[in-house]
Design a protein that fits this description.
Distance between the termini: 14 Å
Number of strands: 12
CATH topology of the largest domain: Ribosomal Protein S5, domain 2
Helix content: 25-40%
Length: about 290
Amino acid sequence: MDAKAFCPGHITGFFQICDSDDILSMGSRGAGLCITLGATSSVKVEDSAKQQISVMIDGKESKAEVTTEALRYILGHAKSRVEVNTTLDLPQSQGFGMSAAGSLSSALALAHLLGKDRQMAFEAAHIAEIKWKCGLGDVSAIHGGGITIRKKPGLPPKGEVIRIPGAPDVVLAVVGARLLTRDVLSDAQKRNAINASGSRKVDALVKSPSIEKLMEFSADFASETGLASRRILEAMGAASKLGMASMSMLGNSVFAMGDVPGLEAVLSGFGRTWTCKVDTEGPMIL
């Protein structure tokens, strides 16, 4: 048996870390957007004498701890051999939610094959993301696509995500080396700066939701927290002359909206660029 699923990527503009004893209520409050570039996973399942999972990412065998964790959650004690082949549209560890998209697309395809509830796939990916410290709110935001405000932490229905209408074009640019989310999340000083800035901005955006406010607050957050490098601040400054720009959390990358050809030209001077749209459909079986 085999199945294929697509999951959009996700960019966080700003966030607040929210701990909880209940892993489904744990995660982050924040705001961001789902994008039409993401991950496509083909999953094959067959009977086996023991439980085996193998994952290929972009044609290379991978440990893929997050995906493997999510698939084990869905399999339970079932003795099955699962083969996953995932293609990523964007680089990992650059704030584009590729880890969440890869694990969620795989989990969705496996749940579909086994006749399990769709929500189980979201739970599996959310738990794996938190456990491996590679993200906090991507799966919650991706749940329904769109431009998102994670008002209450955790996976819906325990968490609450509200949406801002719209599906603008988005230009992405990678301007530096990979940034590991777990390194940032384990730094106490950075956590304090993130929470001080992020919590106020979520409250303000909930009161007055708009894509303009989201982008303004995101740019302020990037500089206030000290997460943005000088190179990122330069790229944001150059792009902001042609629209709105901020740092993708957490990566050495920038996302921008406005004059698309102009933004592509300017940001290509800082690194590789991609253009996509806001995804409004969410994850799906193909």
